[in-house]
Amino acid sequence: MNSLRLFFSVLLAALIAVGSGCSTTPVTPRAAPSAAAPGNVLRQAAMDRALEDRILALDPQRISATDVRDTLAKAPAPRIFLIRGGIYPVYLAMESLGAFLVGMGYPEERILTPHEKDWSLSPYESAPDIAGLLAWCYEHEGVRPTMIGHSQGGIQAIKVLHELAGDWAKELHPFNPVTRKFEAATTIVDPLTGAERPIVGFRLGYVATVGTGGWALALPNHWIVLDRVRTIPDTVDEFVGFRIGFDLWALDGPAFEALKSFSASGNAVVRNTWLPADYAHVSVPATRDLLESPAMRAWIDAYVPDNPSALAPLPEGPDDHVMFAADVWFGLKKHWAIEAQRFVKARRGLPPG
User: What distance, in Å, lies between the first and last C-alpha atoms of the chain?
Assistant: First the structure.
């Protein structure tokens, strides 16, 4: 009996290792000199003093369409990694979300994946690979990336947060999207401080997921995170878990409030946000049609999640998944401003030269 138990334990461990998509062995040494050498990213940004002043004057909680157009659009923007669900053709819903964000004023170049120029990542990509890509982008761009995961993509985003926390490996490697290979280092140069730091422990600013959990957790590639998919580690400042009021795919609804709520293991800010029960799990990121109405765009720009009673009535026109779109846009604008302000403060702290 003990031998049988040992056999199944080894088999389960092997399945988890294969299913989790173990990262490729690093094969590329660090480039020398590094493009992200201390101060390089900050000095290379095309920003004048007036733009810096406008960035620092922004209230991240109250970003208007004018702020986006006249200020943030000229500032460094966090790269957004959309991680799609796993059923064909659900990738089209993430393309729609990407198009919506571009239509609201987000730079397309910061949404398309840097190595494939695609709208989204597959949920079957290795979590260590994605973690290494996030760290590489921060080192070379100076603003912390973000993730938005849908369905299985939400599970994968949470898995990445646990990878960054060192839950399964004590070292991670930068993934270079230019060479499409891992680098042998396990550290990056922080572009804001110039200090060398390990990738494990790297903290993102904002991550959101929608329709996470449920039947997809039966797949072997997600077993590794089965016991912690609702626990958010200290590798993100703010996490928003969107939950549909009646979701057969994610096995979620108000009756499972306590069982399936997301919570922080430390000091991350975690918000559970309910979406209307008539939102469709498979298509909830499909939000491009909201751009058709200027009145709807204005409503979305004015949306603030902390005070729903103050919201104006929804205007006429397509409103599919508008609550999801508005909340995500609020979070992205907020952290776009926060990251731009961090960048400017570090830039102003550079020594002359």
Answer: 71
Taking CA atoms, 37 is separated from 78, 139, 176, 184, 192, in Å, by: 19, 9, 16, 17, 10
Q: Is 160 strand, coil or helix?
A: helix
The pTM for the full model equals 0.90
Looking at residue 10, its pLDDT comes to 33
SS3 state of residue 189: strand
> In the chain, pLDDT over 70 holds for what percent of residues?
88
How is residue 45 written in tokens? 């940004």
Residue 210 confidence (pLDDT) above 60: yes
Q: CA-CA distance, 208 to 157, in Å (whole number)?
A: 8
Q: Rounded to whole angstroms, how far apart are CA atoms 172 and 166?
A: 8
Mean pLDDT of 327-347: 98
User: Which pLDDT value is given to residue 353?
Assistant: 63
Q: What are the DSSP calls for 224-282, one per residue?
A: GGTTTTTEE-SSEEEEEEEEESSBTTTTBSGGGHHHH--EESSS-EEEEEEE-TTS-TT
- In this structure, are strands 187-189 and 196-198 parallel, antiparallel, or unpaired? antiparallel
The domain ranges of the chain are 32-348
Contact 335, 205 (CB under 8 A): yes
Cα separation of 296 and 65, whole Å?
A: 13
Q: Which of 20, 67, 37 is nearest to 336 (CA)?
A: 67
Rounded CA Rg of the chain: 20
pLDDT digits (tens, 9 = 90+) for 307-317: 776 788 899 88
Residue 102's contacts (CB-CB under 8 Å, 6 or more residues apart) are 108, 111
β-strand 236-244 against 187-189: which pairing, if any? unpaired
Taking the C-alpha atoms of residue 353 and residue 345, their distance in angstroms, rounded to an integer, is 17
